[in-house]
Amino acid sequence: MRTETVGDGTPELAVVSCLHGDEQCGKSAIESLLAERLTFERPVTFVVANEAAVGANVRFVDEDLNRAFPGDPDGDTYESRLAAELMAELREKQVLDLHSTQSHPDPFALVDGLDEASARLARATGLERLVDIGHVPGGLIGEVDGVAVECGYVGTATAARNAERVLRNFLGVTGALDVTAEESDPDVYRVTDVVEGRDFEFVGQNFQQVPEGTVFAHRADESLRADEPFYPVLMSTGGYDEMVGFKAERVGRLSNVE
Ligand SMILES: [Zn+2]
Q1: Cα 100 to ligand 1 centre (Å)
Q2: How far away, in angstroms, is 139 Cα from ligand 1 center?
Q3: Is 144 domain-assigned?
Q4: pLDDT of 162
Q5: Is the pLDDT reported for residue 258 higher than 80?
Q6: Which listed residue, of 122, 169, 189, 205, carries a Cα 20 to 30 Å from 34's Cα?
């Protein structure tokens, strides 16, 4: 884990990149921001989490770090020990956690349960879509006061640009940087189900409603059909080994949900 704290005082804000080592948009956004040597009005800790996985350009070394929280300092896996180290660093902070994805080109925010604190962090991303993934246990944002962002397709320049835009907006809204920034009022989707299964081809579009009776994924021996309408979230053909992704319901604008 690599950390760098800028600004004076004890940081209450942290920006985390590379929980997944092959998702490097957050790391490049942080590096280009810090290269500008800006004056920080509030201190911020920047983290590159899974450096070993970054070096090998893989998602993880022993196990998925984002499924290893809260971790164990004496754990059997590299990621279990790293998760414990990260928790010690992030426990008291508000966290922006930057990812990229196989599922969707446009950036969206994720929170683990909606409350005043998570809603405020979600607005600070400036993004128009928010997924409440509280239905699915695990993940850093389930352990800390935080918002995750999927910035776009893994390895693309667009994801890196989106990460930089979200990062600046977040730091502007939270008062860490004196830059133009705007809070958003995102459309909220709540995850209701996990769609398990290996080797399915996903044939729908994320955030586009799948009507009842429609096939949304298939493989040689099986088709998955919507038994009621839903919105696919983080669904993809190759994104996960053991699942297609998540079903969600659309619950309206954040300002109407709270
Ligand atoms: Zn990720």
Answers
A1: 6
A2: 10
A3: yes
A4: 98
A5: no
A6: 122
Residues 6+ apart with CB under 8 A from 132: 110, 111, 112, 113, 114, 188, 189, 190, 191, 251
Average pLDDT over residues 11-18: 98
Are 33 and 79 members of one domain? yes
Closest by CA position to 248, among listed 196, 190, 203: 190
Q: How many domains does the chain have?
A: 2
What distance in angstroms lies between residue 102's CA and the mean position of ligand 1's atoms?
10
Between 174 and 258, residue with greater pLDDT? 174
- Distance from Cα 149 to the centre of ligand 1, integer Å: 9
- Domain membership of residue 195 as a residue range: 191-257
CA distances (Å), origin 182, targets 106, 109, 128, 171: 18, 15, 11, 10
* 80 shares its domain with 15: yes
Give yes or no: residues 153 and 206 share one domain.
no
Q: Are residues 155 and 109 in the same domain?
A: yes
Which pLDDT score, from 0 to 100, does residue 257 have? Answer: 87
Arithmetic mean of pLDDT, 11-26: 98
C-alpha to C-alpha distance for 4 and 185, rounded to whole angstroms = 31
- Shared domain for 128 and 224, answered yes or no, is no
Q: What is the pTM of this model?
A: 0.96
Whole-number pLDDT of residue 138: 81
Q: Which is nearest to 85 in space by CA: 100, 68, 97, 107?
A: 68
pLDDT surpassing 80 at residue 136: yes
Residue list, CB under 5 A from ion ligand 1: 20, 23, 99
CA of 97 to the centre of ligand 1 (A): 9
